[in-house]
Amino acid sequence: MLASVHIPVLVEETIQALAVQPGGRYIDCTLGGGGHAASILEHSSPGGQLLGIDADPEAIKLTRQRLKAYSNSILLINDNFVNLKAICYKYDFLPLHGILFDLGLSSLQLNGYGRGFSFQHRAPLDMRLNPNQELTAAYIVNNYPEAELAHLIKTYGEEGYSRQIARRIVQERPIKTTLELAQTIERVVRKRTKIHPATKTFQALRIAVNQELEHLELALRQAVDLLGFEGRLVVISYHSLEDRIVKQFMQQESKDCICPPGTPTCVCGHTASLRLINKRVITPSLEEVRNNPRSRSARLRAVERVISQDEHYSLVERLCSEAKVKANGNVWRRPAILKKLRKSFTLS
Ligand SMILES: C[S@@+](CC[C@H](N)C(=O)[O-])C[C@H]1O[C@@H](n2cnc3c(N)ncnc32)[C@H](O)[C@@H]1O
């Protein structure tokens, strides 16, 4: 089962950074095996609510089973987090006390399913999080021009041998499986380092297939607008490309002015929408890395929403007035829950 395979990373630190409180409402944008989700539900009980999103239908199916005990407090949606705002509005699930992104792949995706994410298991070159999507890694590998392949491997994999790898891939096409691709790369990158020679190319292909960086940027912007008064945004990333996006976004949105240095008076009109909670990134302890080597590259960053009372109340009002006119069968629209929610967000 998924949950028994994927060990969640930085769980205590995540709960603390999200400042999880009883009765709060949270979104886990990367539900995966539901490890973080279960912990959020536990700490937000009684009365907590969680909406879980995952692009992978298998993750939703397996985790729904795992979180069965919380079925009255959860709503699990198979979608891409790039649609975060639309999902929240559709289910009247706002304003939020906390939003979590635990980026990347779960262990089950890496080790199971046969989706071709790992060069250690023979599988077709797929790499789609959502199997209904059209673009696959096989299409990129077997159809992209050499220059475009090299650019992609360099940009998304930060691979120094990108041009040589792209040339070899083009020479050896068609390449159908993960192991064929890994062997092609091994014939080019002969230097032995701590990581397998195919690691960076596989990362690049996965990022390109799923438009991971573009989706992350878009989703972070949406997340801010959904947070209520002092709502928290927590992101765990696993490689420098993701972490750079998260860091720059959080730093920029926590500044009142983003004019270039040296500008005599502010012309940007930008105001801070976030406050940094930890000036420094949070990383796993040595003990966690020992117990779960996959956690070694994890980097957690957290921010708190800076929101005016007016903005906050307009979010709450919108939620409550819409709820009155909508059908009541949905757990999220039950008046009692809404009342509690409104109260929990009332400013003292
Ligand atoms: C590292 S796992 C999350 C593990 C989870 N926190 C746990 O405790 O089990 C990342 C999950 O995010 C999902 N994911 C990655 N990018 C996504 C996106 N753009 N939209 C929705 N889900 C995404 C993946 O399918 C995967 O299941």
Overall number of strands: 7
Distance between the termini: 44 Å
Helicity range of the residues? 40-55%
The proportion of residues in beta strands is 5-15%
The computed structural class is: alpha/beta
Mean pLDDT: 89
Overall form: globular
Tally of DSSP helical segments: 16
Radius of gyration: 22 Å
- What are the low-pLDDT stretches, counting only 5+ consecutive residues below 50? 324-334
Tell me about the biggest sheet? 7 strands, mixed
Describe the structure.
The protein has a seven-stranded mixed sheet with strand order 3-2-1-4-5-7-6, with helices on both faces. The chain has helices at 2-5, 11-18, 35-43, 57-66, 84-90, 107-111, 137-143, 146-157, 162-172, 178-188, 199-210, 212-226, 240-253, 286-291, 309-325, 335-344; strands at 25-28, 49-54, 74-78, 96-102, 227-237, 274-276, 299-305. The chain is 45% helix and 12% strand. Helix 3 (35-43) links the parallel strand 1 (25-28) and strand 2. Bound molecules: S-adenosylmethionine. The site of S-adenosylmethionine has 22 residues, from helix 3 and strand 2.
Which descriptors apply to this entry?
binds S-adenosylmethionine; 348 residues; 7-stranded mixed β-sheet; 16 helices; 12% strand; alpha/beta; 45% helix; globular
Helix and strand arrangement:
Layout: H1 2-5, H2 11-18, E1 25-28, H3 35-43, E2 49-54, H4 57-66, E3 74-78, H5 84-90, E4 96-102, H6 107-111, H7 137-143, H8 146-157, H9 162-172, H10 178-188, H11 199-210, H12 212-226, E5 227-237, H13 240-253, E6 274-276, H14 286-291, E7 299-305, H15 309-325, H16 335-344
Parallel strand pairs: 1-2, 1-4, 2-3, 4-5
Antiparallel strand pairs: 5-7, 6-7
Helix pairs in contact: 8-9, 8-11, 9-10, 12-13, 15-16
The structure holds S-adenosylmethionine.
S-adenosylmethionine binds next to α3 and β2.
